[in-house]
Amino acid sequence: MNLNLMKRYHLLLASFLGLVAGCASPSTNPIPTPYPPEYLPTVIALTADSASISSTETAVVSIPNILPSITANPKITTTPLATASATTIPGHAVAAVQITSPGPMSKVVSPITLKMNIITGESKSVQIDLYGEDGRLLSRNFKKGVPTSREGVPQTIKIPFEIRAAAELGRITISTFDDAGRTQSLNSVRVLLLSSGLNEITTPGNPSEPFRVISPLLKGSATGGVLSVKGDMWPFNLQSVILELIDPEGKVIGLRVLAVENIDPQLFDTTIPYKISEPTLARLTIRQDDDRIPGLFYLYSQEILLNP
């Protein structure tokens, strides 16, 4: 065998032995053994479930918390209903005696806090009376020097009282007077008097004069012994409405009584005969009594010049 052929033989033999040794010796980084074919469906299913759970958790985390929070002491919030309030009567003047508190049938204990708006006459005096259900006088206050204003002057006064029963009906009556001492305006409110307990104050009544005189006009005049009176009224009850002409000495020189058949708003048209010997500045008064407690409930008036 020649020398070149011998070298090629040894080279081939060495390569073959190295290949056999490489196949027989273990690798330091072996390739992972693939899953057996029969386990592949399980691996795919688990992988799909894992992906689904991961995406669901991500979605839940991204959803804002819209559930209501629960407090330890939940409270119910209520929206108060609109309270009823009195409105003015179209065409009627603001009442000369407005009782702003207490309102009709308020429950009151002693002393009553009376709030009012007063248009006084030339006397600048106001009288406040509290009557029990049988008409007895429980309290009387007399205020002098109340300022005069066309819009009225706010006034507040305390009315103490004592009653024998646990409760009874009462009436607060407020009067104003002219310079001759004649009643110029009078208004009232009924209340429930309590011997003990707490006040329960209702809203005030109508702020307008319930009676209106269309004719004669304010500071008007009449002749011939007969005064024609036209107007409209919102009666308080079915008690008669009494029209009077009162001279400066307080003497009644003319009278007319009107029957009231219902308490609906109504017109009246009547005459009052009078007899005088000289011109007289009389006061035309229109009044109505209380139908629950003895005494006067309301009075409206205006001056009129009467001629023989």
Describe the structure.
The chain folds into two domains: 88-209, Immunoglobulin-like (Sandwich); 210-308, Sandwich (Immunoglobulin-like). The protein is globular, with a radius of gyration of 50 Å. β15 and β16 (296-306) form a beta hairpin. Mean pLDDT is 80; it is low at 1-5 and 9-85. The protein is mainly beta and 308 residues long. 15% of the residues lie in helices and 38% in strands. The strands form four sheets. The protein has a five-stranded mixed β-sheet, with no helix packed on it. Strands 10-16-15-12-13 form a five-stranded mixed β-sheet, with no helix packed on it. Strands 1-3-6 form a three-stranded antiparallel β-sheet, with no helix packed on it.
List the SSEs and their pairings.
Blueprint lengths: L2 H22 L15 H23 L34 E5 L4 E4 L2 E7 L7 E6 L5 E7 L9 E7 L7 E11 L5 E12 L16 E5 L4 E3 L3 E8 L7 E6 L5 E7 L7 E8 L6 E10 L6 E11 L2
Parallel strand pairs: 2-8, 10-16
Antiparallel strand pairs: 1-3, 3-6, 4-5, 4-7, 7-8, 9-11, 11-14, 12-13, 12-15, 15-16
Labels describing this entry:
mainly beta, Immunoglobulin-like, 2 domains, 5-stranded mixed sheet, 16 strands
DSSP helical segment count: 2
Structural class: mainly beta
Largest sheet: 5 strands, mixed
Q: Strand-residue fraction? A: 35-45%
Rg calc: 50 Å
